[in-house]
Design brief:
alpha+beta; 8-stranded mixed β-sheet; 8 helices; cytoplasm; FBPase_class-1; FBPase_N; Fructose-1,6-bisphosphatase class 1
């Protein structure tokens, strides 16, 4: 019988193999992220049975109406990250400003975390997959002092690790520490995330494109032409492609990474910079994509090379199988959209 490898065991093995001199700080941080994910999973799975489903009657800093589970997920991840003692600050989609921890165990913390606690939360009421996205950086400011804005405004290339949790028919945690991508499925019978998707590699190409075509008339010309290209029949290039759009970045990306595909969130007339946030949505997903053999860009540049200017900065985002990303870039360049 094949040995089951739990998330914590995998993290320790990876540390011993790849980072033998490490002191376990990063491992403890990931351990607490896993605990928070289990707690959020529990509430997501019983959301219809208790008073946690639906709108909270408040808005987040983005001006988006918060769901009750948005608030629960945010508070749960923040509490676990602080409890780890390895996180000195958090940038969250749900909070207008940074949250810093510089007392107690966190006084010597080396890491900061950027996160979207509950991606796709507008889908909660109709039982569609939602997720959590996170990225981890080493702080730049001196240890023992409060984290600063500069700690968070780092390029994606400075990321230590990134991951996401998808709460769907099964709950899966996917992460990379810069040495490949691995996925762990939560086994509810033992309460552990177990290795289920080792060394994930995305196909070079695919047949799925993911975009909200309801906004077609507002898309840049290059995106419009690419969509028409996807819809044309051509046996040589295995077209037409299939349109699949869930409306949850984590769910759409997870499917495309495993099956081969392209996720597109372009600028529109009403959102000239796109709607997805660079720090805690685009950067971590781009890092995971590249580690799995995919590609990601925003405007005319590799997403991970962008210098963040604000905590909640928005950028256009294109991510997926490398050959599909390259073909889309051709259309955007021809239309002078990038």
């Amino acid at each position: 019988m094949q040995k089951v490898i739990a998330l914590n065991e995998f993290i320790i093995q990876q540390q011993q193999t790849d980072y033998p001199a490490a002191g376990g700080n990063f491992s403890r941080l990931l351990h607490h992220i896993g605990i928070a994910a289990k707690k959020v999973n529990r509430e997501v799975n019983k959301a219809g049975l208790i008073d946690i489903l639906g709108k909270a009657g408040t808005e987040n800093v983005q001006g988006e109406e918060q769901q009750k589970l948005d608030i629960y997920a945010n508070e749960t991840f923040m509490a676990e990250l602080q409890a780890s003692g390895e996180c000195c600050g958090i940038a969250s989609e749900e909070n207008e400003d940074l949250t810093t921890f510089h007392e107690g165990l966190c006084s010597t913390a080396k890491y900061i975390v950027c996160m979207d606690p509950l991606d796709g939360s507008s889908n909660i009421d109709v039982n569609v997959s939602v997720g959590t996205i996170f990225s981890i950086y080493r702080r730049k400011s001196p240890i023992g002092t409060p984290a600063t804005r500069e700690d968070f405004l780092q390029k994606g290339t400075d990321m230590v690790a990134a991951g996401y949790v998808i709460y769907g028919s099964s709950t899966v945690l996917v992460y990379t520490a810069g040495n490949g991508v691995n996925g762990f499925t939560l086994d509810p019978s033992i309460g552990e995330f177990c290795l289920s998707h080792p060394n994930i590699k995305t196909p070079r190409s695919g047949k799925i494109y993911s975009i909200n075509e309801g906004y077609y008339e507002k898309f840049p010309m290059g995106v419009k032409k690419y969509i028409k290209y996807c819809q044309e029949k051509d046996t040589a290039t295995n077209r037409p492609y299939t349109s699949r759009y869930i409306g949850s970045l984590v769910a759409d990306f997870h499917r495309n990474m495993l099956k081969g595909g392209l996720f597109i969130y372009p600028p529109t007339d009403s959102h000239p910079n796109g709607k997805l946030r660079l720090l805690y949505e685009c950067n971590p997903i781009a890092f995971i994509a590249e580690q799995a053999g995919g590609a990601a860009f925003s405007d005319s540049r590799r997403t991970l090379d962008l210098q963040p200017e604000t905590i909640h900065q928005r950028v256009p985002f294109y991510v997926g199988s490398p050959e599909m990303v390259s073909k889309l870039q051709e259309f955007l360049k021809a239309a002078k959209d990038i």
